Structure prediction request, 154 residues.
Amino acid sequence: MSLLGKAAPDFTLFNHRKEPVSLAAQRGQRVALLFYPAAFTGVCERELCTVSSQFAGILGSKAAVYGISVDMPFSNAAFAAKTNATFPLLSDVHRAATRAYGVSWPNFAGIEGLEVSNRAAFVVDEAGQVVYEWIAANPGVEPDYAAVLAALGG
Prediction:
């Protein structure tokens, strides 16, 4: 079920510094939510590095960007340090945001019961509506970064 044109599901997740971050608190600015399957995997590493470099001019001034995975805050902190991420990584350990956005990927890597976030990108506008949505056919596919950046207003 698509969320495009609908109110973005709210969440409160811990960032990689173990501080709570709420989507509702971001109202008034555009927000990109970039779901990724797992820290320290090749495609995820490329994604974080690409976003950090390509989105540098828009971050903080016009928009907020958050990476979201089911990894613990400790793993996300180490992953952020390794990739020099310029945006917060949020920990969805209970999979609430992953499921609310419809991006759950069960049995990841053929491991029964291992549920992760599929790779996906959403942009939420200043009023809290989803204005851009992309969900990968499989977690190995990266988003169209130019399209996400354009939806953010960059």
